[in-house]
Amino acid sequence: MVRSMKGKHPDYFEAILQLRDVSPEIIDFVDADLLRTGLIITKKVELKNGFDFYCSDNEQTRALGKKLQEKYGGDYKVTATLHCRKDNKELYRVTVLFREAHFRKNDNVEYQGEIYVIKIMIKDIFLQHQKTGKKIHVKFKDMDQIKKI
């Protein structure tokens, strides 16, 4: 559901989508999804290592972050901050952070001195040891410990 910006300040936003260390493919995906869903962006800020999109809807921004994580794998975090109270209701602004993984499914990687193959990247990163076949999983928050080889 696209909310109207009628009666709202032109810079009004409910959520920030933070993209960090992402490829042009991800930017293209986000731009296409924004067009498809009609999510209104009131401001786009380019940073040294990514972009901040100021979005008009909390739920749609969360959904976009989840789609990115499911399609590309990466670190996905959602935080909420109390913005104000209106009519005895607390209103929150949401920040959705997505940081792309620097490896893909079926890549050979090094983790804790051992060689693994990336098998699955959904909620966690599932690795299979190249020699023993033993499978382990690593949280996306720890993906910086995995080195592509």
Descriptive report:
With about 150 residues, the protein is an alpha+beta fold. It has two domains: about 15-100, no CATH class; about 110-140, no CATH class. The protein is about 20% helix and about 45% strand. The protein is built from two helices and ten strands. The strands form two sheets. A five-stranded mixed sheet has the order 2-3-1-5-4. Helix 1 (about 25-35) crosses helix 2 (about 60-70). It is elongated, with a radius of gyration of 18 Å. The N and C termini lie far apart (about 45 Å). About 25% of the residues are buried. The model has no long low-confidence stretch (mean pLDDT about 90).
SSE series: EHEEHEEEEEEE
Q: What's the end-to-end separation, in Å?
A: 43 Å
**Biggest β-sheet, characterized?**
5 strands, mixed
Unreliable stretches covering 5 or more consecutive residues = none
Write out key terms for the chains shown.
about 150 residues, alpha+beta, five-stranded mixed β-sheet, five-stranded antiparallel β-sheet, 10 strands, about 45% strand
Short description:
The chain has 149 residues and is α+β, with helices and mostly antiparallel strands. It has 2 helices and 10 strands, in the order βαββαβββββββ.
